[in-house]
């Protein structure tokens, strides 16, 4: 269960590394992921939301019994 969100995390990092926030402004991935600036693409925002839901599902007891909704 701990590794069920790993693929999403890697895709999010890959997506964020291609944004201006990381390239031009030289900010960290965590800083860029938390921002709601136009420098982050809508694809990265969608990945961020999906990753958040995946991590939240690991704490939710109902989801722990059934497992995370697949990635």
UniProtKB/TrEMBL annotation:
Any GO BP annotation: mitochondrial respiratory chain complex IV assembly
Superkingdom to which the source organism belongs: Eukaryota
InterPro entries, A to Z: Cyt_c_oxidase_assmbl_Pet191 (IPR018793)
Ranges annotated as spanning the membrane: none
UniProt KW keywords: Disulfide bond
Listed Pfam families: Pet191_N
Disulfide bond as UniProt keyword: yes
GO cellular component: mitochondrion
Keyword Nucleus annotated: no
PANTHER family registered for this protein in UniProt: CYTOCHROME C OXIDASE ASSEMBLY FACTOR 5
Similarity field: Belongs to the PET191 family.
Protein name stated in the entry: Cytochrome c oxidase assembly factor 5
């Amino acid at each position: 269960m701990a590794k069920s969100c790993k693929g999403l995390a890697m895709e999010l990092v890959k997506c964020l590394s291609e944004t201006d926030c990381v390239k031009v402004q030289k900010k960290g991935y965590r800083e860029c992921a938390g921002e709601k600036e136009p420098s982050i693409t809508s694809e990265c925002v969608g990945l961020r939301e999906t990753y958040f839901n995946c991590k939240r599902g690991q704490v939710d007891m109902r989801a722990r019994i059934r497992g995370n909704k697949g990635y």
